[in-house]
Amino acid sequence: MNLLEIKNLKMDFGAGPEALRAVDGVSLTIGTGETVCLVGESGCGKTVTALSIARLVPTPPANYVGGEILLNGRDVLKMSNGELRDIRGGVVSYVFQEPGASLNPVFRVGNQIKESLKLHKPEKATNEEVIRLLKLVGIPAPESRIKNYPFELSGGMQQRVMIAMALASEPKLLVADEPTTALDVTIQAQILELLHDLKQRLGMAILLITHNLGIVGDMADRVAVMYAGQIVELSPAKELLRRPLHPYTKALMNAVPKLAGGANRLSAIPGNVPRIGNFPPGCRFAPRCPIAKSECSEKIPELVEIEPGCFVRCPFWKGK
Amino acid sequence: MNEIATIQNPTAEQPLSPWQLFWRRLKQRRIAMVGGVILVVLYLVALFAGFVAPYSYDRQDRDRFFHPPTCPRLSGFRLVIPRYEQLPGTFVYRAVLNDTKPIHFFVHGDKYKLFGLVPATIHLFGTGDENHPVYLLGTDQFGRDVLSRLLYGSQISLSIGVIGILLSFTFGMIIGGISGYFSGWTDTIIMRLCELIMSIPALYLIISLRATFPPGMSSSQVYAMIIIILSFIGWASMARVIRGMTLSLREQQYVLAARALGQTHLKVIVRHILPNTFSYVIVAATLSVPYYILGEVVLSFLGVGIQEPNASWGNMLTAAQNTEYLRNYPWLLAPGAAIFVTVLAFNFLGDGLRDAADTKS
Lengths: 320, 361
Hints:
The complex is a heterodimer.
Chain A: E1 4-13, E2 20-30, E3 35-39, H1 46-52, E4 62-71, E5 74-75, H2 81-90, E6 92-95, H3 99-102, H4 109-120, H5 127-136, H6 142-145, H7 155-167, E7 173-177, H8 185-202, E8 205-210, H9 213-219, E9 222-227, E10 230-236, H10 237-242, H11 247-254, E11 304-307, E12 310-312
Parallel strand pairs in A: 3-8, 3-9, 6-7, 7-8
Antiparallel strand pairs in A: 1-2, 1-4, 4-5, 9-10, 10-12, 11-12
Helix pairs in contact in A: 4-7, 5-7, 7-8
Chain B: H1 2-8, H2 18-27, H3 30-47, H4 49-52, E1 73-75, E2 78-86, E3 93-102, E4 104-114, E5 118-126, H5 146-182, H6 184-199, H7 202-211, H8 219-249, H9 253-260, H10 265-273, H11 278-301, H12 313-318, H13 323-328, H14 334-357
Helix pairs in contact in B: 2-14, 3-5, 3-14, 5-6, 5-8, 5-10, 5-11, 6-8, 7-8, 9-10, 11-14
């Protein structure tokens, strides 16, 4: 059984005729100990999908209209508040984008980690355990760090503290929502290294949200590419990087500057991401797609499994 | 040589906590510190009122109504006070020449209970002679020592401010936090309720609420009731401000992070959102204490507060309503001066706290 199974998830913001479909039929599975990357532009629904796993999107304004999210075989969307509190932190933990903003500025970091322990492992809510966790995430001199306030730590250290908080309850799944975006490149590498290392040691699964394709190659087992609320391609990471199938993925890969690329102009995808609520009728990428045909703007193509484990939402994936 | 030595041994500086930084900034503000010191002294004196006061608050000296303040003089190495003699048929007193008594310290006198518990008779100062009393601030129309009553009264007047603030701010913060955090219907209902309470003229509400209570209440019951009434009115404005702050704080990522850890709504409010409003709340509380003190004064002045013979600054001022008294015996205004100093000290301290809490300045 898969650890997480999202089936055809549909979520609106708002209700009635003014509802805006933010997540439209997303299906995604994560096995135990697997790392899955969710890639896409800002506003394509990655974060909302990830937050939905622990039903952290406030309802209202959000409104789940279809699908299910099976976590350990149980549907998160049907859970009571008490059950939700148990899985939040207990089964799924989150690490967010800005470590500085994710830590409460008025509490010492040691106490914040202890809060996480108190919620899920009350018998282990001790200073020793906090120090052990801080050591685990590679913070030097943890004995003195627990007395620090968040603003006294650097960005990288803050993110390590966040990871320690997330790991305190030994979750099965760690959702890292762009954990390195706010950090500089060397610290990014360190944090990713740390996540990778912890995953091996603790055997947890990771859902990594990013818009950095470079990270995907280092970390992911499988990659899901999202565009305008839908998954457009889902493949093993190596396959996807070697041979992107969907025109959007291809365009994304082309937009990554290459070291050997010379002084050519950076290639960009023409046009803009369609605004939510204003999606084109057919394939949502069609207006910006270099290989779009007339039927592309008639109906939304299905996500088809073209070979085992490789899904693509484009009937013309073969052709140029 | 010296320079090299210092460079080679850099002293590791422990970073200052936010409270230490706050304290450091506060210390730079002279007026705020003066206000703070005055308040500390006032509250200490109030705590030890029975000991500091030379007489009991209800001890009547039937031979000396409207006795003027006596000023101790230095005679040799001792402080001495003259004896005053009443001119027959009037409340005019004249100092008797060469009839002085030295002021003794730690003398036995009226019985009192320290902190309301420990029975004691030792007073800080006094003459030890009933016929030669020391009235530093004179006596009132019943021959009671104004200074002693002022000190006993400070217990009530000063504590009402602090307890009232604790009550109304706790209540206001929790209600405001809930209102801002949940928003929607909860918010609408709570905020309309706040507006309802705020739209009622406070004084009339106090007096009408007071009227609903039975007249023969003991002083401690009246005391509790005044606090409850003042807090009942005070929480609404606090709740509004906290609600506004919560509206912005709940969008912070650490709130989401706490939710993602499985924290309950109530704990997120109490543990994560409200502590972030403390820098405002502490300042607002300091600046609001005077309103509670003045509230008690107004109630007691109108005769619906603390009842005689118990002393409070408000009911002591009742005597000063009479213009004739005021003209002839101006020392009856002493509680007014005490209120003035206290309120000013709170405002100085509050201003300083606000500046110290504002890291942008």
